[in-house]
Design goal:
This protein is of the alpha+beta class. It is built from 5 helices and 4 strands. The protein has helices at 2-82, 84-93, 100-114, 135-139, 161-173; strands at 117-124, 147-159, 178-187, 193-205. Helix 3 (100-114) crosses helix 5 (161-173).
Length: 206
């Protein structure tokens, strides 16, 4: 009887020890599984989410910048629409090409308006500065940086003193920028005067 009692106590102690070891093993195994889950699944997903958040922030910043540029462009369009008369005057004062024929026609028109006679018009400079064959430039004339170019000219005129004086005043009030450099007057026939005017005018070219 004592032997059986001792044997039963020994078996009971072994069973309790085994049952105590199982929860520790299971807890350790659970911890390892959690670490592996975090390492191989959660961390890569978190990195992917962080990258997508970064990309989203960049897109939002670009969208905000584009929205600001659009607002500025709309403001400029509105300003241009409300100042179309000033823009027309600027285009007349500084055309986008050095077309000498248009300039000659303007001078002849001003002379005829005061009754003076144009004897000769000479214009020099770089009238071919704008590439007339450049279709891209012609389609988008404001898409390039332009600088002020100069055309030099001289006019030989015949008329009375009042006519020639009125013509000079027309030059000053003309929409086209015309700077008179010098003038020379000599006595003509039939009470008229001969006047030679040298001048400069300007245009915008790429």
């Amino acid at each position: 009887m004592p032997v059986n009692f001792t044997k039963n106590i020994s078996m009971s102690l072994q069973s309790q020890a085994k049952s105590a070891r199982n929860p520790l093993f299971e807890a350790g195994l659970l911890i390892i599984i959690c670490v592996l889950f975090v390492w191989f699944l959660l961390l890569p997903k978190q990195a992917e989410i962080d990258q997508k958040n970064g990309d989203l922030a960049k897109v939002q910043a670009q969208q905000s910048q584009t929205k600001g540029q659009l607002t500025q462009l709309q403001s400029l369009i509105k300003s241009l629409s409300s100042n179309s008369q000033n823009i027309t005057m600027l285009d007349q004062a500084l055309p986008l090409d050095g077309n000498t024929v248009r300039l000659q026609l303007l001078i002849q028109s001003l002379a005829q308006s005061v009754g003076a006679t144009v004897g000769n018009i000479n214009i020099s400079g770089n009238p071919d500065g704008v590439a007339a064959g450049d279709k891209a430039l012609l389609a988008n004339p404001f898409g390039v940086t332009r600088t002020v170019q100069t055309l030099d000219g001289s006019i030989y005129l015949i008329g009375s003193f009042n006519q020639l004086q009125a013509l000079l005043e027309k030059f000053e009030s003309s929409g086209r920028l015309i700077d008179v450099d010098s003038l020379a007057i000599t006595q003509g026939s039939a009470g008229n005067l001969n006047m030679t005017v040298t001048f400069k005018t300007y245009y915008l070219a790429p």
